[in-house]
Structure formats: C-alpha cells, structure tokens
Description:
Elements (H helix, E strand, L loop, with lengths): L2 H12 L1 H10 L2 H4 L6 E9 L17 E6 L2 E6 L13 H10 L6 E9 H8 L14 E5 L11 E7 L13 E6 L10 E3 L22 E2 L1 H7 L4 E8 L13 E9 L2 E4 L9 E4 L4 E10 L8 E9 L4 E3 L11 E4 L2 E9 L4 E10 L18 E10 L4 E7 L4 E13 L8 E11 L2 E10 L5 E11 L1 E5 L2 E4 L10 E2 L1 H4 L5 E6 L5 E11 L2 E9 L2 E8 L4 E9 L15 E2 L2 E6 L4 E7 L4 E9 L5 E8 L3 E8 L6 E11 L9 E10 L11 E8 L13 E3 L3 E6 L5 E24 L2 E23 L12 E7 L4 E8 L2
Parallel strand pairs: 13-42, 44-48
Antiparallel strand pairs: 1-14, 2-3, 3-11, 4-10, 5-11, 6-7, 6-10, 7-8, 8-9, 11-12, 14-19, 15-18, 15-41, 16-19, 17-18, 20-25, 21-24, 22-25, 23-24, 23-30, 26-27, 28-33, 29-32, 30-33, 31-32, 34-40, 35-40, 36-39, 37-40, 38-39, 41-42, 43-45, 44-45, 45-46, 45-47, 47-48
Amino acid sequence: MPSTWRVGGLAAAVGAAALVLPLLAVNPAQASIPKADLTIVKTVASHGPTIDLDPRLSDTLDRGNVAWEQTGAHLTTTPPYADLAQCGQSQAATQYCISEFPKMQIGEYVDTSTRLEDVIASATPPQNGPQNPFALPRLNVAAPPGGVGSGPVNMVYIVDLGKAPAFPTADFGSIKLVLPVGQGTLDTPWVGMTLANGTLPAGPWPASNGGPQGTAKLADWLTVFPDATVTAFGFATPPVPQFQAPTPTNLIITSIDFNGVHYDLSRTNVFKPSVSAEPGETVTYRIVVTNGSSVDTKTAGGVQVADALPAQFTYAAGTLSSPNWPCAFTGNVLSCSGITISAGSSRTITFDATLDDTLSTADLPASPGHAVGVQHRSTSVDLPSTQTKTITTMCPTGYLATDGGLLISSIGQGGDYSDVVISSSQPVTVSGVAGWRVQASNLGGGFAQGKATVTCLASTVGSSASHTHALLGTHPAMKRLIAVNDFGPISPRRVSRSCPTGYTPYAPAFDVSDGVAVMRESYAVDNTWYWTVDYSDDTNAWFGISCLAPQTTTTDGHQATLTVATPDDTISVAPETVADGPEPCPDNSNAIVGGYGSDDNDILPLGMDPLGDSYLLRFYNADWDSAHHADIQVTCISATTGDEPAYQHVVNTAYLTSTTKDRSYADNSSSADVAVTSNGNGTPTKPSGVTLSTLAAQRTTNSSNKATAIVLQMLCSTAPSCSFTVKGLVGSTVVATKTTSIPQNLITPKSVTVPTTGAGKGLAFGDNVTVQIKTSKGTTQYVVGIVS
C-alpha cells in the first residue's frame, strides 16, 4: 500500500493535531540521532628556519650548527674531541684543539631597520594600560628534549651607530651589542663588542672604560649616538677565549622578543597545507583526527588511519609519533589500529619523510605571474578663507591605501598658496575599508580649491594557476613624537622612518597636533622615508610609514615576487609660477606612492595627483626673479608578479575510517602538498660536516679495466659520526653513488668506496668528477680528478 495512504490513515485515526503539534515542538538539534563527527586534517612543515635569517651575516663556523626542530632552533657546538681530556694527551692534540676551539661559534641574525630610539620606546612602560608582553628584549632558551642544556648564548643587536654630534667627522660604523642575560630591561647593561668595520676611533663611548668593549644601557648608547639604528638582531655564542676550552653548547632557542614582536622559532605554528622543498629535503607531516563536540556527537569506535606515501617520498625511520594510538610504518605505508575517540577529543600523528634527491623540474614550464591591482580615487574640495576641513577618500573593499593627500589647483584673489596648511595626512580604516584622510586649513583671505586623493593597492594578487597570494608585511605606521625640544633650535628638521631591509616604504603619513609644520620634502631612499619639516615653536607631530614585503604570503608552497622601481627626475619652476612635473613608471607598472624634494625654500609643494602609470607633482615658486628646481619621484609596482617557479606537486593523502556511523564522510580524507622547486642536481646549500682531504679519487676496476668504484678520502667533523649520501656526477649524469656513515675524525681521513653506476663504468685516468656530499646539515660539493 502506498505510504501516503498509510499516513493518511494514521492521521485520521489519531487526529491531525496530535500528529503535527508534537513534531513541531521538538527541537531539531535534539531530534538528530547521535553519530560520530570525525574529521582528519593533514599538514606539512619544512625543516628550514622558521625566521628569515640573513646568510650574509652568519657567524656560525665549522664547529657550530643550528638545526630547526619541533621546539625551536637547536644550537650545538662540537669540540675537537668528544672527550676534551684528549686535548692534552699530546702536543699535537693540544695544538689541534687550540686551533679548533674558535670554530665552536654560532651567530645568526635577522635583518631589520629599527631606530634604537624606537627599541627603547617600545620597552618603556606606557603611562596608561598594560605593557606589551613582548616589549622587553628577550631570548627564550630551553634544554633539548631529554637532555640538559649547556653552554651560553646571548641576544645580539647589530647597530649602525651613525654620527656622534660631538665627533662629526669620525666614522664609527657598526657595533654588536650583546645582552648577557635572558631578558633585558631599560637598566640592563649591554656589552659592546668589536666594531664591525674594525676601526676604533677615539670617541665618546658610553662606557666607563671609554672604549667600545665596555658596557652601557641602550639609552646611554642613544645619548651619544642619537641616529643609531638596529640593522639586525639575533643570537650568538660568546667568542672563545684564546687558549681556553669553551663549554660545548647544546640548547634550544624557542623564541625571540624584539621591539614588541614575538618571534616563535618552533615548528608548531608552521604546519601548512603546502610547503616548498628541494630534492633530498626532509619534511614533517602532521595528521590530526578530531571527533566533534556537539550534543548529538557520540564516541567513535574502531577509528583507523591509513597513509601511503607517494613514490617520491621515503619514510624517515624512527620519526613516527602517535601518542595513545598504535601506529606503525610498513615500508612506506602508515597504518593505525582501531581505537575509540570520545566526543570533543582528538589525536595527533607526526612523522618525517624525505624527498627523492633525483627529482627534477628542469622540463616543467613556469606559470605566468599574478595581476597586481592598483586603483585611484579623488574627491573635489572647496576650502573657503579661514576654514578648516577634514576630507576622507575611500578605497574599494579589499585594497590598501598606499598614498594620499591634497592637490591644490587654485587660490583666489587675496590669498597665497602658502596660506593652505595641511595638519594631517594619513591612512584610515572605516568599517573595515581603507582610505586616506586629510585635514587642511586655509589661513588666508582667498578661496582655495583642489582635490583629495588616495592611491589603492589590492591586498591580494589576482588568480593564476588556480590560486592567489596575499600581500605581506603591511605593518601599521610607526609613530614618533616630535616636540619643540626634540626639534631643537634649528628649523627645518629632517625626520626619517625605516622599514626592514628589502621592504618598500609606503603610506607616508604625518599628523600635527600642536603648532604648525610644513612638509618641504617627502621622499624614499631604499627602505627609508625622509621628510624635511619647517615648524613653529611648540610643535608636536608624528610621522609614520607602512612597509611592503618584497614577496607575498605562501600559497601552493611558494611566494610570488613583487617588482618595485623608484624613478625620479628634476624639473624647473619659473618665478612666481605653478608648474607640474609628471613622473612616469616603467612599462607595465603602476604608481603607488609619490615623493618630492627641493633644497630651495622658495619651492612650495602643492600636492600630487596619481594618474595610474605616473604621478603628477605640483609646485609653486615664490621667488620673484629666478627659476628654481624641484625633485620628483614615484614608487612603482609591476602590473604582475614574477612568473611562478617551475615546480611539481607531490601530494600526500591520509584516509580515515571508523566502525561507528559518521555524520559526514566528506571530511574523512585530507591532503598535504609539497612543491618541489629545485632542478634535482643537489646544489650545495651549507657545509655538510663531511669534507674531502684531497681532491683526488682512485679507481677500482674489474678484469676488463672497467671502473667498479671510486675511492674518496673523507673527514667527519660531527660527533660521534656523520651519515651522508655521496654522489659522483659528470654533468648531470650520476656515475657513482653510496649512502654510508663514518666516525668523527678530523685528523685521519677515512677511505670511502663509492660504487659506480652503469654510466660510471667508463671513468678513466684524468677524468673530472663532481662529488656531492649531502647530510641533514647541508650539501658540500667538490670537483675531483681520477688519478688511477
């Protein structure tokens, strides 16, 4: 019988109201039959640094090593002998140890460009409200897992001292300031190390001994060097005293606090759906299985996970971690036995896997770059005599305000262009949308007209190869209060704000809260923005910029690169004349910031007009008799990012199942992507810890005089042994290969026999072979000659 008839009969028997009303009264959330609510999320993390270290500044020597582990940067220094008592067993051993001790050194740094006065200001407790918890300089250190931490490590600032007013002709260069404790305060003395440029001019050192090796608070250094700038910050082990055995370092730096920012060095927060890697690199996978926590979620039984690694990966034996879950690898396949997971609970699995080091992307095409969007907006402005107006011009949603201001187009009879004073010009955000706000006053008797402008840069670049990237490093403006005492007795005053090295300054902003300040110049040089300011007594103002990173955020395992140019020119402005100077961008570029300057007080800037691929900059020459020059500048960004790198995706998928009915099976699998970006030729990165004692290789041959192996003389600098893969190549062809290990010994070489491949059977006397030695620390490359 059809179901409609059955329902009809039931309704007639019990009454329609009795059937309908109870159903309507039931809460739908309470009516659901409880089920498991399982999800699986797989992510991947690189083993590379979790902060951007500048390799040009590295002070890490042969016996120092920094490994990026789960909890942070693991610092180790290796002595010449595992047992330092061996150093004194013979004269040769003693001399060897003395020569090797200085190599037990680590020093790594992150680029910045932060005025020392800003570092001090960030550490100064505010008058109202709580202090930033990361305001004080701090190096957070922990013992390695299962071990005891040893050896000292210090926080270090590299400081460009700039000029000392008391010694205007002296060149003091850069100095390293060392924080000898874990966390500093405003009263903590910093130790001054040797000047980076090696010069030691007699000078006003802020230390009791009058030399740069003394100690002084940061404020004392600033007093003597008011223009000092921190150009890098990082960590370093102390220099090894001559003829003394240092304590070997074995500890982990978990984080660094610098200028109010907390830098987490652990890999906990760097797991992503996609990362980039090179052939031979090891990555860490993380699988998280979660059961939901709603009222209709029940315990999931028989929960299992399976993950078969792609052929390009090899499981790194011994790295599997699966607390409270029996999991194991059989070859390259992960299997986790059935367990129960209660509602609101989760389980985490991690393991390492290593890419095949022969992978190549040489024949893969590059993808085109992403479109970079730039738009401009303007608002007409009437400014009657003796009036002040505030005008806000908004960007489209999803854009950043990179520049703005007021362009003066005319001044009525009875007025002068100098009557229009701009007291504030800065980016603003209204209901989540960016814009630019200008406050201007007409102090004269003439009617002024103009337009307020804003330049807008899309915060996300356009889609290419089915993905986008977000712009990075758009830091909020940094403030600096400038009062009459700070300005001093001389007007005008030059003010500057700096971005980190490599970043592009944009959104030059100022706000005058007291007095009058007139911007005579406003322009960029590299990563720094400069203003030249005329001001009245009792002026109080702040100046700020934002900073654009040279690369975008990471998507699909890579970043997109921005191309920025800053062309400039000079124009002539006739006497008592308004003149416009258009400054074009390079082809296929758009203007995002304008700049101007003149060393002549008769030149008065009247504002800028963004015109897409150029800026128009307007000036008035107040001189009655002579023409004067004005400098014009524009910062331009390419209409597209650089072409995407050639890479191949290696996708790894984990699968989830259970014996309990699941609410949805759509989230029972999850994939992580590793984008391989190298050509597979094993380009050297950093020292591997294994060296060759001679650039010569012996052959071993069979009865037909075919090469069966090459024999290399190797030394290992890592205690207690070095594990590595060695390859011999002729061009891009592998002619010999072997994975092996040798014990630590820096005096007596170890003979390592490396079997030839089929392509290497023809190696003969006089041939040259490129030898690559790869460890977890890095890759070392040599060219050796066959001498037998």
